[in-house]
């Protein structure tokens, strides 16, 4: 387990670049009415308020392993996706859905779910022309993540982003070769939507107090990618297994977070009551440590030695209540 750095003080050079507008304001913290999210980070730096801080991240984190990972990503990014074939392969929604899931697993994905794509999830100003989203979960290596907040964990994250990019591009390409329009959606930059609400609706897990999705088989240490399409597919349903309740009484992530960014109580954010992570507190530490990641690693659901028993315990509790 990483030791909590209780003496953390944000780097002064970084803080001089801090904009006047709080990231929590951009995210809509304490806003009681619904609105779509705005881009806050991982976007063209000239178009976001925190662009200078994002540039500083890249200036600060230049370790050889990170650079190697970024170079591999540039190569993968440049690979084009096939055109949509004129020959359309027709199958029932059930058949297509199970074939898509099989194909995604073949491509190295660890969890797949399909759901309706809600316009409400997309960033303000984005107009998607797709109504369905296939959400992909890619498990990260727990031992590598245990090194967080060391740079080696950041380098592992970079590698896993490329794996997600590759899988989503290959899956979209395969659907296109079968005559169906499909568009990959992947990190590290924010695409058309925050992927978490789609992942939850597609049955990949529940939102944890640390602001990431917790999955019953991968815990919190996994990345998300997706493919958007208009194919008629069978939708999955939400899969709650007791995380929300568990988080109410657990404080491991918030206790380990060096800048104390993880809030203990749910907050109303753009009209939705949910767990929330303080952007202004998290970002400086995140930027200084090639992406931190302590919160998802210390979460008991991420621990392979704890997860199975924890899941069975929650299941037994739910069975009793039913
Ligand atoms: C910008 C961003 C960040 C920013 C700021 C995030 C923020 N909340 O302000 C920074 C750089 C700090 C960051 C840090 C981390 N991130 Co980040 N981040 C993103 C990114 C690119 C966009 C998210 C966004 O726009 N947030 C701003 C607004 C929308 O935030 P928000 O209103 O608080 O909503 C958050 C959640 O509540 C949820 N959400 C949004 N709408 C709704 C609606 C409902 C109903 C619910 C229940 C939840 C929900 O999604 C948001 C996630 O930030 C996504 C990729 C993507 N396209 O989704 C990855 C992503 C969310 N990050 C991820 C991770 C894992 C991390 C880190 C652990 C870093 C790491 N080493 O991996 C830390 C965690 C700390 C944290 N603050 O959450 C993963 C989560 C995977 C998972 N298992 O869920 C994602 C999906 C990247 C990926 N492709 O895998 N991140
Ligand atoms: S990623 Fe942010 S919220 Fe998570 S432990 Fe690090 S500083 Fe805290
Ligand atoms: S560490 Fe505990 S409180 Fe934090 S997300 Fe995991 S289960 Fe929830």
Extended strand count: 8
Number of helices: 13
Spatial strand order of the main sheet: 1-2-6-3
Low-confidence parts: none
**Percent strand:** 5-15%
Shape: globular
Bound molecules: cobalamin, iron/sulfur cluster
Distance between the termini: 36 Å
What's the average pLDDT?
A: 97
Radius of gyration: 20 Å
Question: What order do the SSEs take from the amino end to the carboxyl end, as H and E?
Answer: HHHHHEEHHEHEEEHHEEHHH
Work out the helicity level. 25-40%
> How many domain units?
1
Classification by helices and strands? alpha+beta
Q: What characterizes the major β-sheet?
A: 4 strands, antiparallel
Question: Can you give a write-up of this model?
Answer:
Helix 4 runs parallel beside helix 7. The protein has a 4-stranded antiparallel β-sheet, sandwiched between helices. A two-stranded antiparallel sheet has the order 4-5. The mean pLDDT is 97. It has one domain. The protein contains 13 helices and 8 strands. By secondary structure, the chain is of the alpha+beta class. Strand 4 (206-207) and strand 5 (213-214) form a beta hairpin. The chain is 40% helix and 11% strand. The relative contact order is 0.17. It binds cobalamin and iron/sulfur cluster (2 copies). One iron/sulfur cluster is lined by residues 208-210, 246-247, 250, 252-253, 299-301.
